[in-house]
Amino acid sequence: MARKLPRKDVVIVGLGWTGSILAHELTDAGLDVVAIERGPWRDTATDFNVAYAPDELRYAVRKDLFLQPAQEAMTMRNNVTQTALPMRDYGSFLPGTGVGGAGTHWNGHTWRFFPSDFTLKTHLTERYGADRLSELQIQDWGVSYDELESAFDRFEYLAGISGKAGNLNGTIQPGGNPFEGPRKREYPLPAMQMTYAPTLFAEAARSRGLHPFPTPSANLSKAYVNPLGIAMGQCTACGFCERFGCANYSKSSAHTTVLPVLMRKSNFEARTECEVLKINLAPDGKTATGVTYIDVNGETFEQPADIVLLNAYGLHNVRLMLLSGIGKPYDPATGEGVVGRNYCYQTNASAQVFFEGKSMNPFIAAGALGQTVDDYNGDAFDHGALNFVGGAGINCIPTNGRPIQYRPVPPGTPRWGSAWKKATRQYYNNTLTFSSQGSSYATRGNYLDLDPTYKDRFGRPLLRVTFDFPDNDIRMSNWVSDRMQEIATALGGKQAVVGKQQKGWNSVPYQSTHNTGGAIMGTDPRTSAVNRHLQSWDVPNVFAIGASAFPQNAGKNPTGPVGALAFWAADSIRNHYLKNPGKLVEA
Amino acid sequence: MKKAALLAGLAAATLFGAKVLASDLFDRINAGRYQAILADCAACHTKPGGKPFAGGAPLQTPFGALVPSNITPDLETGIGSWTYADFRSAVKTGVGKDGKRLYPAMPYPAYATMKDSDVADLWAYFQKVEPVSNRVVSNQLPFPFNIRATMIGWNLLNFSPKEFEADPNKSAAWNRGAYLVNGAGHCGTCHTPKSLTGADKGDEFLRGGNLQSWFAPNITSDPHKGIGSWATDDIVAYLKTGANRFDIASGPMAEAISHSTRLWDDADLTAVATYLKDVKGDGAPAPTPVVATDAAMTAGKAIYLDRCSACHISSGVGQPSLFPTLAKTPTVNGTDPTSLIRVVLEGSQAASTAAKPTTPAMPSFGWNLSDADVANVLTYVRNSWGNAAPPVTAGQVKDLRAALTR
Questions:
Q1: Active-site residues of A: which are they?
Q2: d(CA A24, CA A265)
Q3: Residue among B366, B356, B308, B360 at smallest CA distance from B332
Q4: Do A50 and B352 count as a contact with CB atoms less than 8 A apart?
Q5: Residue A30: which H helix or E strand, with range?
């Protein structure tokens, strides 16, 4: 029997990027907010101690900061004809856990999607005709880039993003991304100082007529004090970003940008190592009454609240909605239902160029310290004569030269022994890696639901991921790989190896943690789980905020748009919902 | 400013014997609340997480443990049965109700200089805080120190109560600063070195003191060991926010800022800074730094570059509001390296204030640096980038490590 706790104005599920931003905004509005986080409390000095933070074995290999399958696993299959099996280890993607969430151990690439990405169905239909989209389930977001511009800006200034604007109020800026949407002002910090490999990559790309620019980075190029008054330091380029917490207060995360101010507030409370089991609904099923959670001692509590915000990792937002009966589950057989719909991922390929006599010094690195080419991303180029839609950013962002996992050797090198050691020695400092990060567009058959067989430690069904790379995305990615081959050739080098993505998604090798969709936003309650304010169509005092709301994924990292959606949803709640609680959009 | 004017007005008023109007009482309680902040009563008399003023956590003195008493107006266990005369006597002379002698861990030698009107306000306030029943056994000292009467002798030797007298040759701000530093603020309780009997060495006023395994640095205008290079605004910023362009508060000073100085009026902080800028150091020239080729220096430099420079930067300049500068700072150049050794061994977290909410922290290195490593790296820090101070020995590190783990 759950113990019933005193009511709160707002209960937040998950204290990562979006949870902390929403908590900060809503406590500023005077609300009494509690955040319930299933992982542990973490702070920089204690948990990312500079004396042991760069422990590759502990954090990168054994994945110390990540969600472990014993706590919550998922099942996977490629299509509905298969029987899904549980992932025994997280491999293809690595969900976070604990305060800060996946924003703790990210690399820090902080993008805005293109304006056309937000109206993708309308845009592509107008440009190429509806037939081009026949095998896809592409949708508009219901919110435009222009509407989100100030939210992007606020997230970038909160996080002290280092970059170079490519489009200021419609004027293209030299040195920035000429394909981006117009921004009202520059990034808060200048771009990071470039290392050698991205410099070579940019020269080669320019020689091909492309437009390389510094990747917008949450690794800070300079010391910074954000609008909340929280200070951050200059990144030391130690090369321990992805899979690690930052020991130097120089990678933006909830810890380094929001929590110090949030934790001082008397109308905020964080309960860690408490896992929300479900969102409770009133008997009519149209109002959430709060959540039920279980603490680390196995005691269950009911936390009543007027507003419930789902700020967990996108996949977990979707699972909680399915477990709680919020919104109609998606059925791929009929194409009806909304929760679980339009699950998307990322379509990637990588290239390696092996040189002689270079000093790449890969250990001087940061998670987002590099160069990007967006000429082949989204709809930045004409697809008229092509047989696909979508595109990919091409990134040369050497994130690390860590001793265990960074051992680039040419194909054909033995996997161990003296020949391998010799090749390691020869190529550690002579390898340039770059990669494509491609869009992932929705199809009818890629979706999320509850597994019929496998359950978690509390007896709740696991989330089932049904996914394979759509043919459109494979054609897109392979075409971009051909463009990567052209850049590789321009780079020179002794040997170039350019990969090509293939059908048959495999959950074992790491690919990307950019899972999107499942509780997508939109303008039609028959095809979206939440409205343009991230508010559930069916239970209007529930908002689901995160990459779960993306109708499809672009060829860019999702954290920038996720941060913008957090500010967007906070504004919707503060300016509209609180004044008149109820449906913000009539269906 | 408003509060300073209020205090001046109160000082002129007759407070006792006369009938007190309700509105006066409100003003006096409010003024007394501010006196309690200035005097930082909560620092000792409130246990972390405990009820305000209901008794504190034990103070470890060189003579043994003392537990700060319950000063709420509870009749049985607090000061509810006290009269104003009892209270005034305790605060200003160290003699409590029924003649019971207080130990000078209660800084009555400093509070003795407080004006009676301020003490009266404090009394008005303490009569109105929430009474809490909490019996505290204050005296946990070993024999012979547990005999309170020994304090009669101590007072004869060390204590000559005298209310503050303004120096007519100095500015009003200087005099206000002197009053606060010497009186309610009791800065010397930590920052003035102590004699064998635990009394202030008056001729070494504010030149740095060692207590509870911390070294409270020299805060005189000494340009090398003290804060002579800090401008008035730097001192105000430090006390108001916990950080300035040189340094970030840690340890007991972070607590003093969090509980007390961040809540002081700006005019009072400026007054304190004005006065401190005029407190003389020992006048001794800076020592000659240990030469860079010294074995401890070369070993220390290697450790510094490996373990420290990512945050504090290879030139020792740190990063603003985040990592303190190590070059030319009083804590680093102080005669006594206790605090430096301690933060390396244990780590330390900055004070949290509304103006400086970041609370950056230094992690502990006690588990992966040996005594010799700590000594070498600190010797390097204390003798680089314009710093000059006696080398740190492995023995000093060993002793402090032992003291901290006791």
A1: 514
A2: 9
A3: B308
A4: no
A5: none
Cβ contact, residue pair B357, A261, below 8 Å: yes
**Length of chain B measured in residues:** 406
d(CA A313, CA A19): 10
Preceding amide of B144 cis, omega within 30: yes
Q: What share of chain B is helix, strand, coil (3-state, %, to 5)?
A: 45, 5, 50
Partner residue opposite B311 with nearest CB, options A43, A229, A248? A248
Q: Which chain B residues touch A if contact means CB-CB below 8 Å?
A: 307, 310-311, 319-323, 347, 349, 352, 354-365, 367-368
pLDDT, tens digit only, all 406 positions of chain B: 444 444 444 444 444 444 556 668 889 999 999 999 999 999 999 998 899 999 988 887 777 788 899 999 999 999 999 999 999 999 999 888 888 877 777 888 899 999 999 999 999 999 999 999 999 887 766 777 777 666 677 676 676 778 899 999 999 999 999 999 999 999 999 999 988 777 788 789 999 999 889 999 999 999 999 999 999 999 999 999 999 988 899 889 999 999 999 999 999 999 999 999 999 999 999 999 999 999 999 999 999 999 999 999 999 999 988 999 999 888 899 999 999 999 999 999 988 888 899 999 999 999 999 999 999 999 999 999 999 999 999 999 999 999 998 7
Reported ipTM: 0.84
Q: Note the pLDDT of residue B12.
A: 42
Report whether B100 contacts B148 (CB < 8 A).
Answer: yes
Q: For residue A584, is it within any domain?
A: no
User: B96: which 2 tokens?
Assistant: 């409590």
The gap from C-alpha B157 to its chain's centroid, in whole angstroms, comes to 24
Residue A586 lies in a domain: no
CB A534 within 8 A of CB A569: yes
The Cα–Cα gap between A84 and A80 comes to 9
Look at A223 and B322 and tell me if their CB atoms are within 8 Å: yes
- Structural domain that includes position A370: 3-577
Q: Both tokens of residue B379? A: 């010797």
Where exactly are the structural domains of chain B?
Answer: 2-158, 172-204+217-276, 295-405
- Taking an 8 Å cut-off on Cβ atoms, the answer to whether B311 and A260 are in contact is no
Which of A493, A547, A565, A403 lies closest to A56 in space, CA to CA?
A403
Q: Report pLDDT digits (tens) over A292-302.
A: 999 999 999 99
pTM, two decimal places: 0.91
Contact A332, A80 (CB under 8 A): yes
Residue A31's domain is classified under what CATH number?
3.50.50.60
CB A513 within 8 A of CB A348: no
The arrangement of secondary structure in B295-405, i.e. its CATH architecture, is Orthogonal Bundle (1.10)
